[in-house]
Specification:
The complex is a heterodimer. Chain A is α+β, with helices and mostly antiparallel strands. Chain A has helices at about 5-25, 25-35, 45-50, 70-80, 90-105, 105-120, 230-265, 280-305, 310-335, 350-360, 365-375; strands at about 125, 140-145, 150-160, 165-170, 185-190, 195-200, 205-220, 225, 270, 270-275. In chain A, the strands form three sheets. Chain A has a four-stranded mixed beta sheet, covered by helices on one side. Chain A has a four-stranded antiparallel beta sheet with strand order 2-3-7-6, with no helix packed on it. A two-stranded antiparallel ribbon of chain A has the order 9-10. Chain B folds into three domains: about 5-125, Acyl-CoA dehydrogenase/oxidase, N-terminal domain (Butyryl-Coa Dehydrogenase, subunit A, domain 1, Orthogonal Bundle); about 130-240, Butyryl-CoA Dehydrogenase, subunit A, domain 2 (Beta Barrel); about 255-395, Butyryl-CoA Dehydrogenase, subunit A, domain 3 (Up-down Bundle). In chain B, the strands form three sheets. A four-stranded mixed beta sheet of chain B has the order 1-4-5-8. In chain B, strands 2-3-7-6 form a four-stranded antiparallel beta sheet, with no helix packed on it. A two-stranded antiparallel sheet of chain B has the order 9-10. Classes of the chains: A alpha+beta, B alpha+beta. The interface of A and B includes residues 2, 272, 293 and 318 of A. Bound molecules: flavin-adenine dinucleotide.
Chain lengths: ~375, ~400
């Protein structure tokens, strides 16, 4: 598979770029943040995105999806990353929808995935329990209760959990905390008795939720995939999550870099543009090279997922590790090269820095993915 | 069977019959490489025979046009040949600066006569070339070079000194940057000349490196003669030619990390780390070393994917920046250096030997390679020079 976009994919990129620039400029994120918008994203924008088919990109037409792939979803994520457009694309489509696609049975897909594709149903993935991404480290328990289950425990960093209709919860139906075996995924109603959701405003102006599960009843029909085999399913979901999020990061970091490059050419000191100073030139050139590497590994990972390549998981981890390393090294430099204006709230570059930091840690930082990559390669 | 598959079958069959068993064994990629040249009869006859057979088919330069001795293969066919050679661990038949740098440039820039005269001997390995760019006073600032060539009607007379000339002591010919107009601004008075080294006016003296080997020389010109027909490009237009050739050179150097493993090659990094740092639950026991190994392996992957993407973009007819070779030179060489640095960290005290007993052959070799790798970020234009090029040509940052 050549590492270039097809004509149709190029077209999708252009459409997405134009749409995002017009309908979701960075001013929108500021407004949402400053007004403490209860959703944290524009519902109107989200329904427009859904009308464009973005909420169903990788899902089959049967459920109202576009029947495309993760490469296409990645293209759209990269473009939304450019303006830091806030939307449930990552939470509900990339993570939630993928879990249904990969783990849901026919009835579950019909019932929930159709709503996801239409943009009406919002999903959120609730796995993390501590300060670090560590997917098997789950203390939340699922105890059998007649023909169903009762869930008890707590989750953090549930992206867009405060507005989700359904929560996909990883709980332990067997085994000890941090064991891979014994995990089960449940798709529970967010308004079920015993569900506690507290909105957490994040540094990037987006929202995640803290979730408490206090004897929440889950039916057998709400189990996704095999009981006790949730880790396999989660692995496949997180591969897609890592590659898709890396694509969004690529869009954000590339834009932050382009903005900084423009500033280097425009801002004058000592009677010359600051971009003529070699101390800044060399650092800018290194950022460029990092972005080139990033672009290759992101596209390679997305294509591998679409092609069911045997190394797709390793490639997804490579992409996320590369972008999680690039995030601080590029975003921090961009702020520094703006001088004083770079640390003001008025200048957009600080918003890129903040989003970079959140995405750097989300779904595993570089060290997490290097560890995963090494494990997959037998060392 | 598709055309490509029948080509593969033919190649496989031909290699089976023509590649001697001795040429299917590991080698060190340097001293054991076959360089050809006029003194080729003093080199290993098996290696020479292998090169000659490959050259008959033009497969020492698979994609070059047939009319100049090349193989005339498409990129896809050339890849098949590469794969089939790799399958039987066949050594490259010919290692040469002519193949890597001069030939590609001549095919683009040379006149018909120049191509007919100089390209076929490169393909056949009959002439060994070296590169006379750098001078004691002209390194990164290459255009300030002082070696002079005076016009004497049908020939030039050359006087001056070059330095860091790789392989000059065994080379037959040198492609050389010379000043032909001392009055002109520095970039506009340079010409690109081919000079025969087999004459009293050209002498060399080897320089020893920190790695202990002496692969390069100082080269002196004292009333040396160069033929007029061996001027490449226009008189005083040599700078453009020189830059184009540098792009081929940078691609080649950036690629060096992907070379065939040598006879004394250590095991792959993860295995090496397990051997020297121990294992815990099947993993490298030292978590810091393990993280560095993963980081390096992933970096190598990222570079390879970026090279592949660049190739695919070119095939798809998209713009490929002239500075691409600078990016690859920069990251390829830094990654190679990082690899040897990590390997010495893994070997620990076993990487501190110079020669003799107490060290495995590959341990000593790793130490030499580590020292050799310092040159990677200098030769072919230093890393700082590559960063300057990227900043200027790709990013458009002002001077
Ligand atoms: C192993 C090896 C093989 C070689 N083979 C050949 C060969 O076959 N033929 C040939 O002609 N040459 C060859 N070279 C020479 C090589 O091209 C030069 O060494 C190189 O271009 C650097 O020049 P220099 O050594 O004079 O260093 P200098 O130019 O003096 O550089 C010294 C330091 O200053 C830095 N510097 C210089 N200018 C700038 C700038 N504008 N901005 C920022 N930093 C700068 C450099 O990056 C470097 O760190 C070889 C070199 C090596 C190491």
């Amino acid at each position: 598979m050549p590492l270039v976009l097809t004509e149709e994919q190029e077209l999708l990129r252009e459409t997405a770029r134009e749409f995002v620039a017009e309908r979701a400029p960075i001013a929108q994120l500021r407004q949402l943040r400053d007004e403490r918008d209860p959703s944290g994203f524009s519902r109107e924008l989200w329904s427009e995105m859904a009308q464009l088919g973005w909420a169903g990109i990788p899902f089959s037409e049967e459920y109202g999806g576009a029947d495309l792939g993760y490469t296409e979803l990645g293209i759209v994520l990269e473009e939304t990353g450019r303006t830091l457009a806030a939307s449930p694309l990552v939470s509900s489509v990339l993570l939630g929808g993928s879990t249904l696609l990969l783990g849901g049975n026919e009835t579950q897909r019909k019932e929930w995935l159709t709503g996801v594709c239409g943009g009406e149903t919002l999903l959120a993935l609730a796995i993390q329990e501590g300060p670090h991404h560590s997917p098997w480290n789950v203390a939340t328990r699922a105890e059998t209760d007649g023909d169903g289950y009762r869930l008890n425990g707590a989750k953090t960093f549930v992206v867009d959990g405060h507005v989700a209709d359904r929560l996909i919860v990883a709980a332990r139906s067997a085994g000890e905390q941090s064991e891979r075996d014994g995990l089960t995924l449940f798709c529970v109603d967010a308004s079920a008795p015993g569900v506690g959701l507290a909105r957490a405003s994040m540094v990037d102006g987006r929202n995640a939720a803290r979730l408490t599960l206090d004897g929440v009843r889950a039916e057998r029909s709400e189990v996704l995939g095999e009981i006790g085999q949730g880790a396999e399913l989660l692995d496949a979901v997180l591969d897609r999550g890592a590659a898709g999020l890396a694509a969004e990061m690529l869009g954000s970091l590339d834009t932050a870099f382009q903005k900084t490059l423009a500033y280097l050419k425009q801002r004058e000191q000592f009677g010359v543009p600051i971009g003529s100073f070699q101390a800044l030139k060399h650092r800018a050139a290194r950022m460029f090279v990092q972005l080139e590497l990033s672009r290759s590994v992101v596209l390679d990972a997305l294509q591998a997922l679409d092609g069911d390549h045997p190394d797709a998981s390793a490639k997804a981890s490579l992409a996320k590790a590369q972008l999680s390393d690039a995030a601080p090294s590029i975003a921090n430099e961009c702020v520094q090269m703006h001088g004083g204006i770079g640390v003001t709230d008025e200048e957009d570059i600080g918003l890129y820095l903040k989003r970079a930091r959140v995405t750097q840690f989300a779904l595993g930082d570089a060290a997490f993915h290097r560890d995963r990559y090494a494990g997959m390669h037998g060392y | 069977m598709s055309d490509l598959e029948s080509f593969r079958a033919e190649v496989r069959d031909w290699l089976e019959k023509n590649c001697p068993p001795e040429m299917r064994t590991p080698y060190d990629g340097q001293t054991q490489s076959y360089w050809g040249g006029r003194k080729r009869h003093e080199q290993d006859p098996i290696a020479r025979g292998w090169c000659e057979r490959m050259a008959e088919r033009g497969w020492t330069a698979p994609t070059w046009p047939r009319e100049y001795g090349g193989g005339g293969l498409s990129r896809a066919e050339a890849r098949v040949l590469e794969q089939e050679m790799a399958r039987i661990h066949a050594r490259p038949p010919l290692a040469s600066i002519g193949l890597m740098m001069l030939g590609p440039m001549l095919l683009e820039t040379g006149t018909e006569e120049q191509k007919r005269e100089h390209v076929p001997p490169i393909v056949k390995g009959e002439i060994k070339w070296c590169q006379g760019y750098s001078e004691p006073g002209a390194g990164s600032d290459l255009a300030s070079l002082q070696t002079r060539a005076e016009d004497r009607g049908d020939h030039f007379i050359v006087n001056g000194q070059k330095i860091w000339t790789s392989g000059a002591d065994t080379a037959d010919m040198i492609f050389c940057l010379v000043r032909t107009d001392p009055e002109a601004p520095k970039h506009d008075g340079i010409s690109f000349l081919l000079i025969d080294m087999d004459q009293p006016g050209v002498t060399t003296s080897p320089i020893r490196l920190i790695s202990g080997s002496s692969p390069f020389c100082q080269t002196f010109f004292s009333d040396a003669r160069a033929e007029k027909r061996d001027l490449i490009g226009t008189l005083n237009g040599g700078w453009t030619v020189a830059k184009r050739l540098l792009q081929f050179e940078r691609q080649g150097i950036g690629n060096m990390g992907n070379r065939n493993p040598g006879a004394n090659a250590p095991p792959p990094l993860p295995e090496l780390a397990k051997r020297y740092c121990g294992t815990r639950d099947g993993r490298i026991a030292d978590p810091l070393i393990r993280d560095r190994v993963a980081r390096l392996e992933m970096q190598q992957q990222a570079i390879q994917k970026t090279m592949a993407r660049s190739g695919d973009e070119a095939k798809a007819g998209q713009n490929v920046s002239a500075a691409t070779s600078s990016s690859f030179k920069l990251i390829g060489t830094e990654c190679n250096q990082a690899k040897f640095d990590l390997m010495t960290s893994i070997l620990g005290a076993q990487s501190l030997g110079w020669e003799g007993d107490g060290f495995e052959a590959y341990e000593l070799e790793t130490t030499r390679q580590w020292l050799r790798s310092f040159a990677n970020t200098i030769e072919g234009g230093t890393s700082e020079v590559q960063l300057n090029i990227i900043a200027k040509r790709v990013l458009g940052l002002p001077d």
